[in-house]
Amino acid sequence: MPEQQLPAAGPTPAPPQRHFEDVTDGQELSPVRFPLSVYRLVVAAGANRDFNSIHHNSEVARASGAPDMYASTTFLLGMWERSLRQFIGAAGRIRAITGFRMRSFNVAGQTVVVHGRVTGRRRQGGTGLVDIEMWSDNGQGVSVGPGTATISLPCREGAT
Amino acid sequence: MAPTEEWMEAWQPMIDAVGRDFGGQVLVGADRVEPGTIRRFLEPLELWSPIHEDDEAAREAGYRGVVAPVSSLLSYQLPAMWASGDPGVFVDADRNAQPARSPVRPLVPDLAPPTTGYFATDIELELLGDLCVGDRLTRRGNVLLSCEPKRTAVGLGAFTTWESAYYTTDEALIARIRTGLYFYNPHTEDDEHA
Q1: Residues of A with CB below 8 A from B162's CB?
Q2: What is the residue-averaged pLDDT of chain A?
Q3: Is the residue at B39 inside a domain?
Q4: Residue A134 contacts by C-beta under 8 Å, 6 or more apart in sequence?
Q5: SS3 assignment, position B192
Q6: Does residue A126 register a pLDDT over 90?
Q7: Strands A127-137 and B117-127
Q8: Most A CBs within 10 Å, among B123, B145, B146, B174, to test the A interface
Q9: Which of A66, A81, A158, B1 is 20 to 30 Å from A58 by CA-CA measure?
Q10: In this predicted structure, what is the pLDDT of residue A12?
Q11: What ipTM did this prediction achieve?
């Protein structure tokens, strides 16, 4: 079968820079969808070098007790990073991630949707720290998390 | 002794070793961080930010230069699968043959009972610095923080947690990462009926 023609894509706009003052408790991050085809899992394995066969070979994955080949830790972590980066912009920093627990396999054929919600905010010098509850849903419930990402954002106002 | 007790007892030396550092060697990532490998890492994620491709934009944002995504630390710390002078790793033509050696396989002490399967269960990252183009990542230490034998849907094994520190080549500590791994043997008919 010939390779599907890829649609033309324009340049991706830079995410807007969010400041600490823009963030509110309970604010939700835009959900990000990650359809998991075999093709995508293979590209991910090549890119992140986690060549464990359970991530790109259905036979090996099933022999290991999993229902099918499934997304690796690095790939799933990258999904959280994309969601966070879209929210925090270029000047934001990811300081810590805790509670990144993979509760079920995220297998080929599923779509993983990453969610986030602001749960805490505080200032530290001229920087704003924000805690964001993060989780992934694979259509059968929460498959990763819920965990917490602590990020920093620049403040518009000076240190208080 | 019932079979289930035997498999649990086999993990006791690991339980006794909780707190011990099994990281006897410094693991050096196969390659320095390069713009091309960052781009390829981001491709399946469809993640874009100027800090990952534009040196000026990255410096404006406070980085030393184009910065690697934090989720790529585990990738950049992997040693080479094969290097010049090494014996071959692809020695078996079976469809599902595994390489003779793989840097992805976790470092498991001899104290652990033999297992055929493993997967990561959780991860925690404490991010203290940046990994930028030109850096080469090294991993030091491999401290066993916990070991808990458990029967699961996929087999009989143990949940373990490990901590390592990650440095750039100029000795800057940039991350501490704690990784949970479940080592197991898939269920057999015998233990499924046990």
Answers
A1: none
A2: 91
A3: no
A4: A80, A83, A84, A97, A100, A114, A115, A116, A145, A146, A147, A148, A149
A5: helix
A6: no
A7: unpaired
A8: B123
A9: A81
A10: 61
A11: 0.91
In a domain, B48, yes or no: no
Question: Cβ of A100 and B69 within 8 Å?
Answer: no
Percent of chain A with pLDDT over 70: 89
Residue A5 pLDDT exceeds 60:
no
Parent domain of B18: 3-29+107-192
Q: How many domains does the structure of chain B reveal?
A: 1
The answer for B 46-85 residues in CB contact with A (under 8 A) is 46-51, 57-58, 60-62, 69-72, 74-75, 78, 81
CATH number for position B114: 3.10.129
**Do the Cβ atoms of A63 and B57 come within 8 Å?**
no
Query: Residue A159: pLDDT above 50?
Result: no
Domains of chain A (ranges; CATH) run 20-154 (3.10.129.10)
Q: pTM value?
A: 0.91
**CA–CA distance, B103 with B100 (Å, rounded to integer):** 10
Question: Which of the two residues, B24 and B69, has the higher pLDDT score?
Answer: B69
